[in-house]
Amino acid sequence: xxxxxxxxxxxxTDLAEAVDWYEMRGQGLGAEFLRSLDAVIAQVQRRPAxxxxxxxxxxxxxCAGFPTV
Length: 69
Hints:
By secondary structure, the protein is mainly alpha-helical. The chain has 2 helices and 2 strands, in the order H-H-E-E.
C-alpha cells in the first residue's frame, strides 16, 4: 500500500532554493536533485518503516549524492 506523504508549507520554498543552489553548481544538477528526491519519496511511501522516526510520525531519508543545503 502506498502511503500519503504530507509536507509542511515551507517545503515549496525550500525546494526551489535547493534546486537553484544545485543548478548554480552545475547545469542540470537541480533537475537531477528533483529526480533523486522523487525516487526517495516513492521509497518512503512504499516502505516507511525502513526509515527512522525523527519527530512524532515524521521520518527521515536522505537523497544520496545530495548533501543538505
